[in-house]
Structure formats: C-alpha cells, structure tokens
Specification:
The chain is an alpha/beta fold and 418 residues long. The protein contains 14 helices and 19 strands. The protein folds into two domains: 151 residues, Aspartate Aminotransferase, domain 1, CATH 3.90.1150; 255 residues, Aspartate Aminotransferase, domain 2 (3-Layer(aba) Sandwich), CATH 3.40.640. The chain is globular, with a radius of gyration of 22 Å. It starts with a strand and ends with a helix.
Length: 418
C-alpha cells in the first residue's frame, strides 16, 4: 500500500487520495456514465480491498462461533476476534481490552449506557445534559430514560454559527446533573465541540461524560485516556469498516458497576434456575453470538487508516474542507449552514430556494453522491428554521477535483431552476 508520498524529501508526509482511491473497488464503477464521486462519508464510508478481503478470508477459512469451542475453526475465530479487540484498544489508547465492548454501532452503545448506567443513577428530578447539536441517537435514548425515571433532559444551546454557547455551561452543570452526553463532531454541521473543555468542566463537579465519537474516530486522533472521557462510542461503517459493528469504550470501574444490557449466552459464568453469575468484562455486555466478521473487518479498517496516520488524515481533511468552503462561498445563492471556527469534514448547505432533495437528485445524475434531509438532527434544522440541507462529507479518497466537479454540478442546478 503506497498511500503516502514524501513531500520535498522531508520527514513530513502527505496523504495521496488519487493513490488511495485505487484501494477502493467501488470507484471502478461509473454512475449514470460519469466517474463516481462519493461525498456522503458522514453517513457511511466505503470499504478498501483489504477490509473486504479480510472478511472474505474469515468466511472462507475461520468461520465459527467464538469462545468455548475446542475445534480448530472456533479457536481461529476466537483468536481473530480477540485480536480485533486489542486493535481497537490500541486505536483508542484504552487501558485494557476489558474496556472495549463490541456493539452494533454508536446508537446501540448509547442505548446500552442509558439502559444500564443511566437507569442505575437517575431518579426523579435528576438531569441529563446534552447539546443542541446532537444526532437523534444521543437524544431519544435519554428522553426515554427521563420518561421512565422522572428525570429531566437539559440542552446546551447553540448560536447561529452552529457553536455551543459555552457561557451557559456553568448554569447547566448543576448538583442534579448526573451525566453529560455530547457529540464530538456534529454530523449535521461539522462543528468540532471543545470536548476536552467540556469533560474537564463536568469532572470538576463529579459528572461523568459520554462522547458520541461517530464522526470523530474516523477523522482525528482519539486518546480516551488523555480525554479522560468516561464513555466513548463509534461505528465501524463510518470508519471504512463493515456495517453492524461498533464500539463502546467505558472506564473499567464503571462497567464493573453496571448491570448487563442483555441476557443470554456468553455473558454468564453459570446459570441455574435460582441464580445467574455474570461473566467477567468485557463479555458481561456481549450476550449471544457476536458479529465476529464485523469485528475482524473493523480491526482491518483501523489497521488501514492507522498505516496512513490519523494526524495525516486530520490535516488532509481540514485542508479539503477549507478548499470546499471557499469554492462554495464563491457560488451565488449558496448558503452554508453552520460556520463554526473548528470544523470537521462536513459541510451543510442550501442553493437558493432549491429543495435539498432536488439538489441530491441532480448531483446524482452527475455521478456525485451527497446526503440530503435532516441528517437525523431535526432539532438542529429547527434551530436554523429549515426542514433539510444538502450535505457533503469527506473521506481519505476525496480530492479537490471532486469539489470542483461538485461546484460544476451546482452551477447546472442553478441553470435548471432559473
């Protein structure tokens, strides 16, 4: 794999998306007779050949149920599965593999925390604090929990740039706040929240913090020990890996104190009709047959982007976002929604009075894939007084040329509707 090229013979390296694109089979096709440009990475990223081949190898040579099996394939599958857990641990710099729980994705991770830890600590009058930038998956589970316990959901407001109004934070972190659950990078606007500051302020009052890392883990370096977050969740399919697999990181002492999320096989040590003794971490939270192939594919995806380098990816995507923002602002009638100073690889925009779905449909005819709608962040749309946006989001295989083609597509849209 030759994704990196030396720049001016220095020790600093730059990411080369034209080379990386060759690692992704999806780009060998044409859409409506046009070269395929994929700008929907915040929804799901594409898979490199190494991930596809690793999953294929599992099904051809290792497929079996993990743990407890004494035959060769079960031992192979178990070894690969648990090696994958170590890959994730290293990626996040967690202290132990006991702190790495395999789940279906960020949504299940947050629901797991709500149904176990949240239910354990909340009572009537208590508060859960979230932000005005949250995806529905970091709103609805807490609403359900508040309805069940009599607790209240409070929200850190945002301004017209799509940034948190941090002056409100001291008033919102009260002696009734039991958890701060906040997104790291907004999937709708691209805002990068000051997560270190939020964690520090919450911890000053003894309040644990859950971080929704679905949009940050694939794009910037994550060190959960340095962040000192109590929970961190992300999804494999947004990190160049398979669907149906994700990670919940949680501090070991918290996981030890939490009841199981589900009951069934593998999360037990022994069962009688009178009593069940639960398994050790991390297995206490992994009832039933896990997504073995998904975990193995996720580990390979992590290995892939780690070889490129997370710092390299972060710098590259920041440069691409700046370029795309500049080009979009040069277009008449284009309005960018969310203009925070610190921004990840997501840009939401409108084109005059053209409905976002029409934008997406016409761009698709040009071979360009973007996302349109409310992006599972309806409160964000309501704040800006709009029903939906068109959204472009970038990955390691995107180029400035992709952005230029996008701009040409937007010009065609304006001609059609004028």
């Amino acid at each position: 794999m030759q994704q990196l090229e030396n720049r001016d013979n220095e020790s600093e390296y730059s990411l080369t998306p034209h080379v990386i694109r060759n690692d992704f089979p999806v780009f060998r096709q044409r859409i409506h007779g046009k070269p395929f440009i994929y700008l929907d990475n915040a929804a799901s990223t594409q898979n490199p050949t190494s991930v596809i081949e690793r999953v294929k190898k599992y099904y051809e040579e290792e497929h079996s149920n993990v743990h407890r099996g004494v035959h060769t394939l079960s031992q192979r599958a178990t070894e690969s599965f648990e090696k994958s857990r170590e890959v994730v641990r290293s990626f996040l710099n967690a202290k132990s593999t006991k702190e790495i729980i395999f789940v279906r994705g960020t949504t299940e991770a947050i629901n797991l925390v709500a149904k176990t830890y949240g239910k354990q600590i909340l009572s009537a009058g208590d508060e859960i604090l979230i932000s005005g930038l949250e995806h529905h998956s970091n709103i609805v589970p807490w609403q359900i929990l508040c309805n069940e316990t009599g607790a209240r959901l409070k929200v850190i407001p945002i301004n017209k740039k799509g940034e948190l109004i941090l002056d409100e934070l001291p008033k919102l972190l009260t002696n009734r706040t039991r958890l701060l659950a906040v997104v790291h990078i907004s999937n709708a606007l691209g805002t990068i929240n000051p997560i270190e500051y939020l964690i520090k302020e919450a911890h000053k009052k003894g309040i644990p913090v859950l971080v929704d890392g679905a949009q940050s883990a694939p794009h910037i370096p994550i060190d959960v020990q340095k962040l000192d977050c109590d929970f961190f969740a992300f999804s494999g399919h947004k990190l160049y890996g398979p669907t149906g697999i994700g990670i919940l990181y949680a501090k070991e002492h918290l996981l030890e104190s939490m009841p199981p999320f589900q009951g069934g096989g593998d999360m037990i040590k022994s069962v009688t009709f009178e009593k069940t003794i639960y398994n050790d971490l991390p297995f206490k939270f992994e009832a039933g047959t896990p997504n073995v192939s998904g975990a193995i594919g996720l580990a390979e995806a992590i290995n892939y982007i780690t070889r490129i380098g997370m710092d390299t990816i972060a710098v590259f995507e920041k440069t691409l976002v700046h370029y795309a923002t500049k080009r979009l602002l040069e277009c008449n009638d284009v309005r960018i929604i969310g203009e925070s100073k610190e921004k990840g690889g997501v840009i939401s925009f409108l084109v005059g009075d053209v409905h976002p779905h029409d934008i997406g449909t016409i761009l698709d005819e040009e071979g360009i894939a973007v996302r349109t709608g409310h992006h599972c962040a309806q409160p964000v749309m309501q704040f800006f007084g709009i029903p939906a946006t068109a959204r472009v989001s970038f990955g390691i295989y995107n180029t400035k040329e992709d952005v230029d083609h996008l701009i040409e597509g937007l010009k065609k849209i304006k001609k059609v509707f004028n």
